[in-house]
Design a protein that fits this description.
The protein has 257 residues and is an alpha/beta fold. Helices cover 51% and strands 13% of the residues. It has a 7-stranded parallel sheet with strand order 3-2-1-4-5-6-7, sandwiched between helices. The longest helix is centred in the middle third of the chain and has 29 residues. Pfam families: adh_short (PF00106).
C-alpha cells in the first residue's frame, strides 16, 4: 500500500486530497499546525476507510516545521510515494499595506518549504523508480500582481523545470493551478468574496479530481476548469501591462468586505 504526505491537510484542498486518497486506499501522513484538527481528521479517515493515518504537527513558516517534514520524507523505512505540497495562505492588502514579516512568512511557506520538501522526497522516489509530487500553485501565478502571485509563479516554474529534469525517472511532478475554490482560504485571509460570481467558483473535490487525473497522465501543469484554462491562455497572450491593470482593479474589489 502506498503512502501520501499532505501539508495543510485539515481544510480545503488539502482535506479534499486526504479524503480522496484515503478512499483510494492510500495510507496518509497529515501535516498541519493544529494538532487537535489533525487528530480529528486522522480518526475520521482511518475509521471510514480503514487506512493508516499518521499526523505530524508542523508550522511550515519555521525552520523547525520544515525540518520535521523533511525528516519524515527521508525516512526510507516508511517511504512516502506521493507528496502534496498544499500548505499556503494569502495576506490581505496591497503592497506596503502588509507587514514585511508577513510577506517573508509567505515566501517561507510557498517557496522555501516547497523547495526543501520536494528535494527531500525526490531521491527516495527516484531510487524506487516511482513517485509523485503535486505543488499547489494558482492561476494567480500567471498574473503580475503582488507577492502571492509571485510566489505561485515560482512554484509553477520550479515544478515544470524539475519535471523536465526527472523525465524518465518514474517520478512525476505537477504544478496545480486552481482558480477561486470554496475553502476556508479567503475567510482566514480576511478577504471578501461577494464580488466573485457564482460561476467563478470551483469545489475542492473538483480540483483534486482534475489534479490526480492529470498526474496519472503525467501532465506537469494542471489548471482545473475550462474557464480557468481559458483565463490562463489569455494571460499568456495579453500584454503584461494591461493584464496587470485588470488584475489590480479586480483585486481591489475582491479585498472589500
Amino acid at each position: 500500500m502506498t503512502t501520501a504526505l499532505i501539508t495543510g491537510a485539515t481544510a480545503g484542498i488539502g482535506a479534499a486530497f486526504a479524503n480522496r486518497l484515503a478512499r483510494d486506499g492510500r495510507d496518509l501522513v497529515l501535516v498541519a499546525r493544529d494538532t487537535a484538527r489533525l487528530r480529528q481528521a486522522a480518526d475520521e479517515l482511518g475509521s471510514r476507510y480503514g487506512v493508516q493515518v499518521e499526523i505530524l504537527t508542523a508550522d511550515l513558516s519555521t525552520d523547525t516545521g520544515i525540518g520535521a517534514v523533511e525528516d519524515r520524507l527521508r525516512d526510507d523505512t516508511r517511504p512516502v510515494d506521493l507528496l502534496i505540497n498544499n500548505a499556503g495562505f494569502a495576506n490581505r492588502g496591497a503592497y506596503l499595506d502588509v507587514p514585511v514579516q508577513d510577506e517573508l512568512d509567505m515566501l517561507k511557506v510557498h517557496i522555501e518549504a516547497v523547495l526543501r520538501t520536494t528535494t527531500a522526497a525526490v531521491p527516495g522516489m527516484r531510487e524506487r523508480g516511482f513517485g509523485g509530487i503535486v505543488n499547489l500553485a494558482s492561476v494567480a501565478a500567471f498574473v503580475p500582481r503582488g507577492t502571492y502571485g509571485a510566489t505561485k509563479a515560482w512554484v509553477v516554474n520550479f515544478t515544470l523545470g524539475i519535471a523536465r529534469d526527472l523525465a524518465g525517472s518514474g517520478v512525476r511532478l505537477q504544478a496545480l493551478c486552481p482558480g477561486f475554490t470554496r475553502t476556508e482560504f479567503h475567510e482566514r485571509a480576511g478577504m471578501g468574496t461577494s464580488s466573485i460570481p457564482s460561476w467563478g467558483w470551483l469545489t475542492a473535490d473538483r480540483v483534486v479530481d482534475d489534479s490526480l487525473r492529470d498526474l496519472a497522465r503525467n501532465r506537469p501543469l494542471c489548471v482545473p476548469g475550462k474557464r480557468y484554462k481559458a483565463a490562463v491562455t489569455a494571460a499568456r497572450l495579453l500584454p503584461v501591462g494591461g493584464l496587470g491593470k485588470l488584475s489590480t482593479t479586480a483585486g481591489r474589489d475582491y479585498r472589500k468586505g
